[in-house]
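User: Design a sequence. Structure:
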């Protein structure tokens, strides 16, 4: 058999298969993005921020919204607390994908964000908060209560900014 024909019969199918695999991997890539925005009494709703961006300003946040975009059809769940000391752990009803949490009146003091199980299996969600008193907090893992207090733990500070990031597991 002629080497040119052999190369033609083997080379072209190999190239087609390689292109097909590359195209399949590109189409099925499961990029995940979280979008979020904050509400303050002074400025109303902020523009939507995307994963990694900061949302908020120098005013106290009184409401928030989150949504996730992914081919995995996952959901993001979130809730906030506005209470002091013993009331602190009274979180609002958990919301999901675009619903508002917070009443647009009371200052938000704590935040919890979670991915649905589908997303949680592949991605680690992290978030941090900013307060005037403590500046930026450490990064909190999915499901943790993002709270900032004074050194004694008796005073809970109000959130002014938030930032969310995602890491592949």
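Assistant: Done.
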């Amino acid at each position: 058999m002629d080497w040119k024909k052999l190369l033609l019969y083997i080379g072209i199918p190999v190239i087609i298969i390689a292109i097909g695999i590359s195209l399949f991997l590109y189409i099925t890539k499961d990029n995940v993005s979280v979008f979020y925005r904050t509400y303050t009494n002074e400025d109303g709703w902020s523009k939507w921020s995307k994963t990694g961006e900061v949302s908020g300003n120098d005013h106290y946040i009184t409401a928030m919204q989150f949504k996730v975009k992914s081919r995995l059809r996952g959901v993001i769940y979130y809730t906030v607390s506005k209470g002091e000391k013993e009331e602190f752990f009274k979180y609002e009803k958990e919301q999901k994908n675009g619903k508002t949490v917070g009443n647009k009146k009371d200052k938000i003091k704590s935040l919890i964000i979670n991915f649905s199980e589908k997303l949680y299996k592949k991605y680690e969600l992290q978030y941090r908060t900013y307060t005037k008193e403590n500046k930026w907090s450490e990064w909190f893992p999915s499901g943790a209560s993002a709270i900032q207090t004074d050194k004694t733990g008796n005073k809970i500070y109000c959130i002014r900014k938030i930032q969310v990031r995602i890491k592949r597991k």
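The radius of gyration is 23 Å. The mean pLDDT is 84.
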